[in-house]
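Q: Convert this sequence to structure tokens.
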Amino acid sequence: MSLGTAMVLLLAWFALGCTSPKEVQKTMVKTERTLAMAHNVNASLCAPVELANAETAVIFAKIEFRQGYLRRGSEHIRYAHDMAETALTMSKTLSG
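A:
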């Protein structure tokens, strides 16, 4: 491998900041499942803000991915996952 190629790969690795596309995809799938479960326990009534934040963050993540911004997209999807989990927990707690 040439020095130039190694530098490009090193810069790309730093730009992505240890973000693995495979891990991001797993988090996306888990988040979408969690959102579906949250909807099934009426999160729109029990945790509307958290649910809306999660759904919006998923949309932003998908836009970032399409534009090639893996790191920014992964930040959105981590936030979406956290909000989806919160919405699900709140809904289960409040719906009894």
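The CA atoms of residues 12 and 32 lie 28 Å apart.
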